[in-house]
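Quick note —
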Amino acid sequence: MDCNPLYEDHVRRISAATAEALRGAAQDGPTFEGIVFHAGSARYYHADDQAIPFRSVFHFRRFVPQEGPDHLLLFRPGARLRLVRVIPRDFWYEPPVEIAHPFLEQLDVAEVASAAAAAEQLGPLGRHAYVGNDPAVAEALGIGREAVEPRPLLARLDWARAYKTPYEVACMREAAQWAARGHRAVREGMAERRSERELHAAYLAAAGALEFDSPFGNIIGWDRNAAVLHYQSKSSARPLPGLTLLVDAGASFLGYASDVTRTYAASGAHPAFCEALDGMDRLELELASELRPGASYLELHRRAHRGVARILREIGVLRVGEDEALERKLTLPFFPHGLGHHLGLQVHDVGGRQAAPDGTLVPPPEDFPALRTTRPVEAGQVITVEPGLYFIPLLLEPLRAGPHCSDVDWELVDALTPHGGIRVEDDILVTADGPENLTRPLIPRH
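Predicted structure written out below.
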Protein backbone atom coordinates (compact mmCIF):
# COMPACT_ATOMS: atom_id res chain seq x y z
CA MET A 1 0.00 0.00 0.00
CA ASP A 2 1.11 3.61 -0.57
CA CYS A 3 1.67 4.84 2.98
CA ASN A 4 2.71 8.42 2.27
CA PRO A 5 -0.58 10.34 1.79
CA LEU A 6 -2.48 7.98 4.10
CA TYR A 7 0.02 8.30 6.93
CA GLU A 8 0.23 12.09 6.62
CA ASP A 9 -3.55 12.28 6.91
CA HIS A 10 -3.46 9.74 9.77
CA VAL A 11 -1.02 11.84 11.81
CA ARG A 12 -3.14 14.93 11.25
CA ARG A 13 -6.32 13.17 12.37
CA ILE A 14 -4.98 11.46 15.48
CA SER A 15 -3.06 14.59 16.48
CA ALA A 16 -6.34 16.50 16.40
CA ALA A 17 -8.02 13.74 18.43
CA THR A 18 -5.17 13.76 20.95
CA ALA A 19 -5.35 17.53 21.35
CA GLU A 20 -9.09 17.20 21.94
CA ALA A 21 -8.40 14.48 24.54
CA LEU A 22 -6.07 16.88 26.38
CA ARG A 23 -8.70 19.61 26.35
CA GLY A 24 -11.40 17.28 27.56
CA ALA A 25 -9.24 15.76 30.28
CA ALA A 26 -8.47 19.24 31.65
CA GLN A 27 -12.14 19.54 32.62
CA ASP A 28 -11.81 16.56 35.00
CA GLY A 29 -8.22 16.87 36.19
CA PRO A 30 -4.88 18.64 35.75
CA THR A 31 -4.01 20.58 32.63
CA PHE A 32 -1.08 19.24 30.62
CA GLU A 33 1.01 20.95 27.97
CA GLY A 34 1.53 17.70 26.10
CA ILE A 35 1.99 13.95 26.34
CA VAL A 36 5.02 11.69 26.26
CA PHE A 37 4.13 8.41 24.59
CA HIS A 38 6.59 5.68 25.58
CA ALA A 39 7.12 2.61 23.41
CA GLY A 40 7.58 0.74 26.69
CA SER A 41 10.36 -0.87 28.67
CA ALA A 42 11.40 -4.46 28.07
CA ARG A 43 10.49 -6.96 30.80
CA TYR A 44 12.21 -10.19 31.79
CA TYR A 45 11.00 -13.53 33.00
CA HIS A 46 11.30 -14.00 36.74
CA ALA A 47 14.86 -14.85 37.85
CA ASP A 48 15.99 -15.06 34.23
CA ASP A 49 17.92 -12.97 31.72
CA GLN A 50 15.56 -13.75 28.83
CA ALA A 51 13.31 -10.89 27.81
CA ILE A 52 9.57 -11.43 27.53
CA PRO A 53 8.68 -10.91 23.83
CA PHE A 54 8.18 -7.17 23.49
CA ARG A 55 5.19 -5.36 22.07
CA SER A 56 4.98 -1.60 21.93
CA VAL A 57 2.55 0.32 24.08
CA PHE A 58 -0.40 0.62 21.73
CA HIS A 59 -1.01 4.37 22.07
CA PHE A 60 2.62 4.92 21.04
CA ARG A 61 2.20 2.45 18.21
CA ARG A 62 -0.76 4.34 16.83
CA PHE A 63 1.50 7.27 16.07
CA VAL A 64 4.53 5.42 14.75
CA PRO A 65 5.30 1.79 13.77
CA GLN A 66 8.78 1.89 15.30
CA GLU A 67 9.83 -1.53 16.58
CA GLY A 68 11.62 -2.10 19.86
CA PRO A 69 11.51 -0.73 23.42
CA ASP A 70 12.46 2.60 25.04
CA HIS A 71 11.55 5.04 22.24
CA LEU A 72 9.82 8.27 23.26
CA LEU A 73 7.38 10.37 21.27
CA LEU A 74 6.55 13.90 22.39
CA PHE A 75 3.16 15.33 21.49
CA ARG A 76 2.31 19.00 21.99
CA PRO A 77 -0.80 20.51 20.40
CA GLY A 78 0.10 22.48 17.31
CA ALA A 79 3.75 21.37 17.32
CA ARG A 80 5.50 18.86 15.09
CA LEU A 81 5.79 15.42 16.65
CA ARG A 82 9.22 14.56 18.08
CA LEU A 83 10.41 10.95 18.12
CA VAL A 84 13.53 9.91 20.01
CA ARG A 85 14.56 6.48 18.76
CA VAL A 86 16.71 4.30 21.00
CA ILE A 87 19.08 2.19 18.89
CA PRO A 88 21.53 0.46 21.25
CA ARG A 89 25.14 -0.02 20.20
CA ASP A 90 25.10 -3.73 20.86
CA PHE A 91 26.69 -6.86 19.44
CA TRP A 92 24.45 -9.32 21.34
CA TYR A 93 21.25 -8.37 19.53
CA GLU A 94 20.43 -6.77 16.22
CA PRO A 95 18.96 -3.26 16.28
CA PRO A 96 15.26 -2.75 15.44
CA VAL A 97 14.64 -3.64 11.81
CA GLU A 98 14.21 -0.62 9.56
CA ILE A 99 10.99 -0.53 7.55
CA ALA A 100 10.00 1.44 4.49
CA HIS A 101 7.59 3.91 6.04
CA PRO A 102 7.11 7.69 5.82
CA PHE A 103 7.24 8.37 9.57
CA LEU A 104 10.87 9.49 9.20
CA GLU A 105 9.69 12.36 6.99
CA GLN A 106 6.56 13.24 8.95
CA LEU A 107 8.20 13.47 12.39
CA ASP A 108 11.25 15.18 13.86
CA VAL A 109 13.44 12.17 14.61
CA ALA A 110 16.52 11.95 16.80
CA GLU A 111 18.52 8.79 17.50
CA VAL A 112 20.29 7.91 20.73
CA ALA A 113 21.94 4.80 22.15
CA SER A 114 20.14 4.37 25.49
CA ALA A 115 16.91 4.98 27.37
CA ALA A 116 18.73 7.41 29.67
CA ALA A 117 19.93 9.39 26.67
CA ALA A 118 16.38 9.51 25.31
CA ALA A 119 15.14 11.08 28.54
CA GLU A 120 17.96 13.61 28.44
CA GLN A 121 17.14 14.43 24.82
CA LEU A 122 13.63 15.57 25.73
CA GLY A 123 14.62 17.34 28.96
CA PRO A 124 12.40 18.04 31.99
CA LEU A 125 8.73 17.64 31.12
CA GLY A 126 7.05 18.34 34.42
CA ARG A 127 3.84 19.71 32.90
CA HIS A 128 3.28 16.71 30.63
CA ALA A 129 1.38 13.45 30.97
CA TYR A 130 3.06 10.08 30.47
CA VAL A 131 1.49 7.15 28.61
CA GLY A 132 3.48 3.95 28.88
CA ASN A 133 4.30 0.91 30.99
CA ASP A 134 7.14 2.18 33.18
CA PRO A 135 6.62 4.90 35.83
CA ALA A 136 10.40 5.00 36.36
CA VAL A 137 10.76 6.47 32.86
CA ALA A 138 8.18 9.11 33.71
CA GLU A 139 10.17 9.94 36.84
CA ALA A 140 13.35 10.30 34.78
CA LEU A 141 11.48 12.80 32.61
CA GLY A 142 10.44 14.82 35.65
CA ILE A 143 6.81 13.66 35.39
CA GLY A 144 5.01 12.99 38.67
CA ARG A 145 3.02 9.85 39.41
CA GLU A 146 -0.27 11.72 39.20
CA ALA A 147 0.52 12.37 35.52
CA VAL A 148 1.23 8.70 34.69
CA GLU A 149 -1.67 7.60 32.50
CA PRO A 150 -4.20 9.87 34.25
CA ARG A 151 -7.60 8.27 33.86
CA PRO A 152 -9.46 11.31 32.39
CA LEU A 153 -6.88 11.48 29.61
CA LEU A 154 -6.47 7.76 28.99
CA ALA A 155 -10.23 7.23 28.75
CA ARG A 156 -10.42 9.82 25.97
CA LEU A 157 -7.46 8.32 24.13
CA ASP A 158 -9.06 4.87 24.38
CA TRP A 159 -12.37 6.24 23.10
CA ALA A 160 -10.70 7.82 20.07
CA ARG A 161 -8.94 4.59 19.12
CA ALA A 162 -12.26 3.12 17.98
CA TYR A 163 -12.47 5.54 15.04
CA LYS A 164 -10.12 4.19 12.42
CA THR A 165 -8.43 6.50 9.95
CA PRO A 166 -8.12 5.50 6.28
CA TYR A 167 -4.47 4.59 7.01
CA GLU A 168 -5.53 2.24 9.79
CA VAL A 169 -8.21 0.65 7.63
CA ALA A 170 -5.64 0.13 4.87
CA CYS A 171 -3.33 -1.60 7.36
CA MET A 172 -6.16 -3.84 8.50
CA ARG A 173 -7.01 -4.71 4.91
CA GLU A 174 -3.39 -5.76 4.43
CA ALA A 175 -3.51 -7.80 7.63
CA ALA A 176 -6.61 -9.54 6.28
CA GLN A 177 -4.75 -10.39 3.07
CA TRP A 178 -1.95 -12.06 5.03
CA ALA A 179 -4.44 -13.95 7.18
CA ALA A 180 -6.19 -15.18 4.05
CA ARG A 181 -2.97 -16.82 2.86
CA GLY A 182 -2.68 -18.62 6.17
CA HIS A 183 -6.28 -19.77 6.20
CA ARG A 184 -5.94 -21.14 2.66
CA ALA A 185 -2.89 -23.16 3.73
CA VAL A 186 -4.80 -24.66 6.66
CA ARG A 187 -7.77 -25.50 4.43
CA GLU A 188 -5.46 -27.36 2.07
CA GLY A 189 -3.81 -29.23 4.94
CA MET A 190 -7.15 -30.24 6.38
CA ALA A 191 -7.83 -32.52 3.41
CA GLU A 192 -4.65 -34.43 4.32
CA ARG A 193 -5.75 -34.73 7.98
CA ARG A 194 -2.57 -32.97 9.09
CA SER A 195 -1.97 -32.44 12.80
CA GLU A 196 -2.80 -29.19 14.56
CA ARG A 197 0.87 -28.43 14.92
CA GLU A 198 1.52 -29.03 11.22
CA LEU A 199 -1.43 -26.83 10.28
CA HIS A 200 -0.17 -24.10 12.61
CA ALA A 201 3.28 -24.20 10.98
CA ALA A 202 1.69 -24.09 7.53
CA TYR A 203 -0.39 -21.09 8.57
CA LEU A 204 2.62 -19.12 9.80
CA ALA A 205 4.65 -19.94 6.69
CA ALA A 206 1.85 -18.88 4.35
CA ALA A 207 1.15 -15.72 6.35
CA GLY A 208 4.86 -14.82 6.33
CA ALA A 209 4.97 -14.69 10.11
CA LEU A 210 7.05 -15.90 13.00
CA GLU A 211 5.18 -17.10 16.09
CA PHE A 212 5.31 -13.73 17.85
CA ASP A 213 4.38 -11.79 14.71
CA SER A 214 0.81 -13.04 15.04
CA PRO A 215 -1.52 -10.67 16.92
CA PHE A 216 -2.65 -13.59 19.11
CA GLY A 217 -1.89 -17.28 19.48
CA ASN A 218 -3.51 -19.21 16.67
CA ILE A 219 -6.38 -21.49 17.68
CA ILE A 220 -6.39 -24.60 15.52
CA GLY A 221 -8.48 -27.40 16.96
CA TRP A 222 -9.66 -30.71 15.59
CA ASP A 223 -12.86 -32.29 16.90
CA ARG A 224 -13.38 -31.89 20.67
CA ASN A 225 -10.61 -29.30 20.83
CA ALA A 226 -12.85 -26.93 18.88
CA ALA A 227 -14.97 -26.65 22.03
CA VAL A 228 -12.09 -25.11 24.02
CA LEU A 229 -12.65 -21.43 23.30
CA HIS A 230 -8.98 -20.38 23.59
CA TYR A 231 -7.43 -23.76 22.76
CA GLN A 232 -3.65 -23.43 22.44
CA SER A 233 -2.05 -26.90 22.72
CA LYS A 234 -1.68 -27.75 19.00
CA SER A 235 -1.33 -31.50 19.19
CA SER A 236 1.29 -33.18 17.02
CA ALA A 237 -0.90 -36.29 16.65
CA ARG A 238 -2.94 -36.98 13.56
CA PRO A 239 -6.61 -36.22 14.18
CA LEU A 240 -8.87 -39.09 15.13
CA PRO A 241 -11.55 -39.11 13.93
CA GLY A 242 -10.91 -35.76 12.19
CA LEU A 243 -14.54 -34.82 11.67
CA THR A 244 -14.35 -31.06 12.32
CA LEU A 245 -11.71 -28.34 12.36
CA LEU A 246 -11.94 -24.87 13.89
CA VAL A 247 -9.36 -22.24 12.88
CA ASP A 248 -9.27 -18.88 14.68
CA ALA A 249 -6.21 -17.00 13.43
CA GLY A 250 -5.19 -13.59 12.18
CA ALA A 251 -2.23 -11.58 11.02
CA SER A 252 -0.62 -8.22 11.72
CA PHE A 253 0.50 -5.40 9.44
CA LEU A 254 2.31 -2.36 10.88
CA GLY A 255 0.82 -3.31 14.23
CA TYR A 256 -2.81 -3.63 13.07
CA ALA A 257 -4.61 -6.94 13.46
CA SER A 258 -7.01 -9.15 11.58
CA ASP A 259 -8.99 -11.86 13.36
CA VAL A 260 -10.87 -14.53 11.42
CA THR A 261 -12.50 -17.82 12.41
CA ARG A 262 -13.69 -20.59 10.16
CA THR A 263 -15.13 -23.99 11.06
CA TYR A 264 -15.08 -26.91 8.63
CA ALA A 265 -16.83 -30.27 8.58
CA ALA A 266 -15.03 -33.22 7.02
CA SER A 267 -16.64 -36.17 5.30
CA GLY A 268 -18.28 -38.37 7.90
CA ALA A 269 -19.38 -35.52 10.15
CA HIS A 270 -22.84 -35.89 11.67
CA PRO A 271 -25.55 -34.49 9.35
CA ALA A 272 -27.00 -32.42 12.22
CA PHE A 273 -23.60 -30.79 12.77
CA CYS A 274 -23.30 -29.96 9.06
CA GLU A 275 -26.78 -28.44 9.15
CA ALA A 276 -25.84 -26.39 12.21
CA LEU A 277 -22.65 -25.20 10.50
CA ASP A 278 -24.65 -24.00 7.49
CA GLY A 279 -27.07 -22.23 9.81
CA MET A 280 -24.33 -20.54 11.83
CA ASP A 281 -22.66 -19.28 8.67
CA ARG A 282 -25.92 -17.71 7.50
CA LEU A 283 -26.53 -16.27 10.96
CA GLU A 284 -23.09 -14.65 11.09
CA LEU A 285 -23.54 -13.00 7.69
CA GLU A 286 -27.02 -11.81 8.65
CA LEU A 287 -25.75 -10.21 11.87
CA ALA A 288 -22.76 -8.65 10.08
CA SER A 289 -25.12 -7.04 7.55
CA GLU A 290 -26.88 -5.22 10.41
CA LEU A 291 -23.73 -3.61 11.83
CA ARG A 292 -24.62 -0.04 10.88
CA PRO A 293 -24.25 3.35 12.58
CA GLY A 294 -26.77 3.54 15.39
CA ALA A 295 -27.15 -0.21 15.77
CA SER A 296 -27.16 -1.67 19.27
CA TYR A 297 -24.47 -4.30 19.59
CA LEU A 298 -26.25 -5.68 22.64
CA GLU A 299 -29.38 -6.15 20.56
CA LEU A 300 -27.34 -7.92 17.86
CA HIS A 301 -25.98 -10.19 20.57
CA ARG A 302 -29.52 -10.99 21.70
CA ARG A 303 -30.46 -11.73 18.09
CA ALA A 304 -27.47 -14.04 17.87
CA HIS A 305 -28.87 -16.05 20.80
CA ARG A 306 -32.25 -16.19 19.10
CA GLY A 307 -30.53 -17.45 15.98
CA VAL A 308 -28.66 -20.12 17.94
CA ALA A 309 -31.95 -21.18 19.55
CA ARG A 310 -33.53 -21.50 16.10
CA ILE A 311 -30.64 -23.61 14.80
CA LEU A 312 -30.66 -25.88 17.84
CA ARG A 313 -34.41 -26.33 17.36
CA GLU A 314 -34.05 -27.06 13.65
CA ILE A 315 -31.40 -29.75 14.14
CA GLY A 316 -33.36 -31.35 16.96
CA VAL A 317 -31.19 -30.53 19.96
CA LEU A 318 -33.87 -28.33 21.54
CA ARG A 319 -37.44 -29.53 21.87
CA VAL A 320 -38.89 -26.08 22.55
CA GLY A 321 -39.31 -22.95 20.44
CA GLU A 322 -37.10 -19.90 20.36
CA ASP A 323 -39.12 -17.88 22.87
CA GLU A 324 -39.14 -20.67 25.43
CA ALA A 325 -35.44 -21.36 24.88
CA LEU A 326 -34.51 -17.74 25.51
CA GLU A 327 -36.81 -17.40 28.50
CA ARG A 328 -35.24 -20.49 30.08
CA LYS A 329 -31.70 -19.38 29.08
CA LEU A 330 -31.14 -22.64 27.23
CA THR A 331 -28.77 -21.09 24.68
CA LEU A 332 -26.23 -19.84 27.24
CA PRO A 333 -24.43 -23.20 27.69
CA PHE A 334 -24.19 -23.55 23.89
CA PHE A 335 -23.07 -19.93 23.24
CA PRO A 336 -21.12 -18.74 26.30
CA HIS A 337 -19.14 -15.80 24.86
CA GLY A 338 -19.89 -12.36 23.46
CA LEU A 339 -20.79 -11.75 19.84
CA GLY A 340 -17.53 -9.94 19.09
CA HIS A 341 -15.22 -7.07 19.93
CA HIS A 342 -13.57 -3.94 18.61
CA LEU A 343 -10.46 -4.63 16.55
CA GLY A 344 -7.40 -2.53 15.74
CA LEU A 345 -3.96 -2.30 17.27
CA GLN A 346 -5.20 -4.80 19.84
CA VAL A 347 -7.22 -7.87 19.01
CA HIS A 348 -9.64 -6.95 21.80
CA ASP A 349 -9.28 -3.22 21.25
CA VAL A 350 -9.86 -0.66 23.98
CA GLY A 351 -12.97 1.37 24.68
CA GLY A 352 -15.55 -1.28 23.82
CA ARG A 353 -17.52 -0.79 27.02
CA GLN A 354 -17.33 3.02 27.16
CA ALA A 355 -20.47 5.09 26.85
CA ALA A 356 -18.65 8.40 26.35
CA PRO A 357 -15.14 9.85 26.01
CA ASP A 358 -14.94 10.65 29.72
CA GLY A 359 -14.72 6.96 30.55
CA THR A 360 -18.29 6.41 31.69
CA LEU A 361 -18.88 2.69 31.28
CA VAL A 362 -21.81 0.65 30.04
CA PRO A 363 -21.26 -2.71 31.71
CA PRO A 364 -22.64 -5.81 30.00
CA PRO A 365 -25.96 -7.08 31.32
CA GLU A 366 -25.94 -9.76 33.99
CA ASP A 367 -27.14 -12.46 31.60
CA PHE A 368 -24.31 -11.74 29.12
CA PRO A 369 -21.27 -10.89 31.29
CA ALA A 370 -18.75 -11.86 28.58
CA LEU A 371 -19.99 -9.25 26.08
CA ARG A 372 -16.99 -7.02 25.24
CA THR A 373 -18.80 -4.34 23.22
CA THR A 374 -21.60 -2.21 24.66
CA ARG A 375 -20.76 1.24 23.24
CA PRO A 376 -22.73 2.80 20.39
CA VAL A 377 -21.93 1.48 16.90
CA GLU A 378 -20.61 4.33 14.76
CA ALA A 379 -18.96 4.86 11.40
CA GLY A 380 -15.22 4.30 11.39
CA GLN A 381 -15.26 1.41 13.86
CA VAL A 382 -14.00 -2.07 13.02
CA ILE A 383 -15.83 -4.76 14.99
CA THR A 384 -15.79 -8.53 14.75
CA VAL A 385 -18.93 -10.64 14.52
CA GLU A 386 -18.40 -14.20 15.80
CA PRO A 387 -21.41 -16.19 16.99
CA GLY A 388 -20.64 -19.63 18.36
CA LEU A 389 -22.37 -22.93 19.06
CA TYR A 390 -20.47 -25.49 21.13
CA PHE A 391 -20.95 -28.80 22.89
CA ILE A 392 -18.98 -28.26 26.10
CA PRO A 393 -19.67 -30.89 28.77
CA LEU A 394 -18.61 -28.56 31.58
CA LEU A 395 -21.37 -26.12 30.64
CA LEU A 396 -23.97 -28.66 29.56
CA GLU A 397 -23.90 -30.85 32.66
CA PRO A 398 -25.79 -28.34 34.87
CA LEU A 399 -28.46 -28.12 32.16
CA ARG A 400 -28.64 -31.91 31.96
CA ALA A 401 -29.19 -32.07 35.73
CA GLY A 402 -31.50 -29.05 35.92
CA PRO A 403 -35.23 -28.46 35.73
CA HIS A 404 -35.23 -27.98 31.93
CA CYS A 405 -33.31 -31.16 31.08
CA SER A 406 -36.28 -32.57 29.14
CA ASP A 407 -36.08 -29.61 26.73
CA VAL A 408 -32.92 -31.14 25.24
CA ASP A 409 -32.36 -34.28 23.18
CA TRP A 410 -29.34 -35.56 25.13
CA GLU A 411 -28.79 -38.52 22.86
CA LEU A 412 -28.20 -36.12 19.97
CA VAL A 413 -26.03 -33.86 22.14
CA ASP A 414 -23.85 -36.85 23.04
CA ALA A 415 -23.54 -37.71 19.35
CA LEU A 416 -22.49 -34.15 18.50
CA THR A 417 -20.10 -33.59 21.43
CA PRO A 418 -17.13 -35.26 19.68
CA HIS A 419 -17.45 -32.59 16.97
CA GLY A 420 -16.52 -29.84 19.45
CA GLY A 421 -18.27 -26.76 18.19
CA ILE A 422 -18.71 -24.01 15.63
CA ARG A 423 -17.48 -20.42 15.47
CA VAL A 424 -17.62 -18.14 12.42
CA GLU A 425 -15.95 -14.74 12.56
CA ASP A 426 -15.34 -11.81 10.22
CA ASP A 427 -13.95 -8.29 10.60
CA ILE A 428 -16.52 -5.61 9.78
CA LEU A 429 -15.82 -1.97 8.96
CA VAL A 430 -18.78 0.25 9.87
CA THR A 431 -19.32 3.02 7.32
CA ALA A 432 -21.96 5.70 6.91
CA ASP A 433 -23.37 3.64 4.02
CA GLY A 434 -23.43 0.38 5.94
CA PRO A 435 -21.07 -2.45 6.88
CA GLU A 436 -18.13 -3.65 4.79
CA ASN A 437 -16.92 -7.17 5.44
CA LEU A 438 -13.11 -6.93 5.25
CA THR A 439 -12.46 -10.65 5.47
CA ARG A 440 -15.26 -12.75 3.96
CA PRO A 441 -14.38 -11.91 0.32
CA LEU A 442 -10.78 -12.99 1.03
CA ILE A 443 -11.59 -16.07 3.11
CA PRO A 444 -14.77 -17.68 1.81
CA ARG A 445 -16.21 -20.57 3.72
CA HIS A 446 -15.73 -23.07 0.90
